[in-house]
Each structure stands twice: as structure tokens, then as C-alpha cells.
Amino acid sequence: MNFQKTEFYSAYGTSKQLPPSDGVEIVFSGHSNVGKSSLINKLAGRRSLARVSATPGKTATINFYTLENVRFVDLPGYGYAKVSKAEKERWRDLIGGYFGDTDRDLGLVFQLIDFRHPPTADDVMMVNFLIDSELPFVIILTKADKLSKSERAKREEAFKSEIPCFEDITVIPFSSVTGEGVEKIRETVCEIAAEDGE
Fold it and tell me: Hey, which of 10, 77, 81, 141 would disulfide with 115, CB 3.0 to 4.6 Å?
């Protein structure tokens, strides 16, 4: 797969606007500012395919990207406090509408969690939702370059009690700075695409 051929397709602000599934979908989910846009840019080998912002809560739409028979689906980041109640309701409707559509060809969810910190209540809620819904997912631990070897070991140990079923989940440490984890994530995308093409 030539990841550099990833193209922005469209953005949707309400669940009613969402297009039907026309390829296997790989979803990027996570807290505001956890690094979803940076990950998509790194995968595509492009600097500004997905808009990266220092302001949390910047992605307020579901953004679709296309790559051969795969669709990348970038969900708006959750858990940003400085958002109006109406905006939070819209977000809930958007995410609920996406995951609630049983006709979607959902191949995998990349659930991003900041490696440096304990998961937020929203992170844990999302992991529980994915487990309960029996949706296939992988945890991506972002900002891996910001931790020393001993700090990483400490956080990995703590995650075992902080994240439900952590030891049974595929986990990929990732850094958009060093590129750690990029090849593993690309391989995972290729596996999902190959399964869909069978």
C-alpha cells in the first residue's frame, strides 16, 4: 500500500450527513489533543494532510480519508471541558450515530491514549464501550518519545490496573517525532485491507 496516496475525502458535522460505507473503515479515536491528526499525517508521510492544532477540541467533525480500499475515519477528540453543552450533545450524537450504524464496514479502531499519563475516565469508558460492543481495536500509546525507559516501564505496569483487559489488548507505543510504531501501525492497516479484499 502506498500510504502517501492517502487523500482527504470529506468532513461531517452531524450523524445524518455520514455517507454509507464504501470500503473497510479504520477509526482513530481518542481524547482531545492526544495526537490523532499527527498519527494520520505520520502514516501518510505527509505534514499537513490532517490539520494539527495546539488547541484541544479543534476537530469538531468526523473526517474521512481514502487510501485504496480503506477509509480512515478521524473522530473528534472527546473530553475537552471548554465546550458548550450543545456542542457536547452534538459530539455524542455524531459518535453514537457513527458507531450505531450496523451497516458500516468497521475493520478496526485505533484507540489513542497518552503514554505519559493515566487514562482519563473518558478513555476507560471508550475502552469499555469497544469491549462491550465487541469491536476490534488496538491501543496506540502516543507521545512515546517524551518518556525515559524507566518511565515507560512504570506507565506500562500502571496501565495493567488502569485500563480494562490491558494485558489482552494489542498495544503499540507511538511517537510522531521519532516515528516509533509507524511501521507496526502500517502493517496493521495492510492486514485489515487484505482481509477486506479476500
Answer: 141
* pLDDT over 70, % of the chain: 92
Question: Do 182 and 174 touch, CB atoms closer than 8 A?
Answer: yes
83 CB-near residues (< 8 Å, 6+ apart): 57, 91
The count of domains in the chain is 1
Nearest alpha-carbon partner for 127 in 117, 140, 115, 116: 140
Tens digit of each residue's pLDDT (9 = 90 or more) over 31-89: 988 999 899 999 999 888 887 655 555 557 899 999 999 999 999 888 765 667 777 77
Return the CATH number at 170.
3.40.50.300
pTM, two decimal places: 0.92
Q: Domain containing 112: what range?
A: 3-197
Distance CA 96, CA 64 (A): 16
Chain centre distance of CA 185: 11
